[in-house]
Amino acid sequence: MTEITQTRIVLASRPVGEPKPEDFRLEQGPLPQSAAGQLLLETLYLSLDPYMRGRMSDAPSYAPPWELGAVPSGGAVSRVAVSHHPDFQPGDLVLGDTGWQSHTLSDGHGLSLLDRSLAQPSLALSVLGMPGFTAYHGLLNIGRPQAGETVVVASATGAVGSVVGQLARLKGARAIGIAGGEEKCRYAVEALGFDVCLDHRAPDFAEQLAAATPQGIDVYYENVGGAVLDAVLPRLNVGARVPVCGLIAHYNDTGLPPSPDRMPQLLGLVLRKRLLLQGFIISDHYADGFTAFQCDMGGWVAAGKVKLREDFVEGLERAPQALIDLLAGKHFGKVVVRVAGA
Q1: Is pLDDT at 9 greater than 50 in this prediction?
Q2: Where is the Enoyl reductase (ER) domain (predicted)?
Q3: Is 6 within 8 Å of 28 (Cβ atoms)?
């Protein structure tokens, strides 16, 4: 019989600019042995998300950086392989921040049991998990779209943006998506129900956005920044709301962009148009908002009112390149690494 070993990815170096495969290292070792009160978990699915780029750097942020030589953290769905813990049984599926490794020892802290009847356990990492909650909280609690208003969201086929657009439609608003390429834009309209989706790579993107928002923009869900934000700002209506959950266009920046200082323009718009520009970190809101989210989103997903495309990457060893490609906009939907067969 083939001996089972633990495979893990560790952070080998801190990237300058775009991450590279050599910033990671694949390691293998003996399988951890569980003791009293512990579980041995086998990772089935690992979530890859844009925020991970910030954790690779040691600049001050809302979360501590990943340690060099250590396994990066990351949400995962795992199966309980061995249990010496009264609350968990072998075969249970659990959700936890167990990171980039094939097997993990746990004392049960921070783990959530998943319903064994869940047809797609990986959805606990996407529309039923952190990305879905990010879309839900940012749009409904900060954006507060009203029927007939116009909601614009970039990265419209990504894990967060795709849910934002569908929720906007559920609330009776117009959903204008922005994505990279004709295929993604077509999917946003035909599969996700967006009213319009625009390709941000088009040379006349700003003009297309103006034509698609004749009544202006009431909610702009910000997760990209860059040229998309430049095109959106002049279209914002008085009293527009701008929830900010990310700025993926700038995650690899090593300094200020070589462009005019737009801060006076932005602050002038905030003042004149009485804009609400509010950043949020979703981990701050689990205690008081996650239960309501689970109830609402679970119902919408079960009824087919909200859906999400999953982009599976096969094998833990492919996680580094998959994260690099995610940050470059090469993936389509929620990126999930299938570490072991479910």
Answers
A1: yes
A2: 17-337
A3: yes
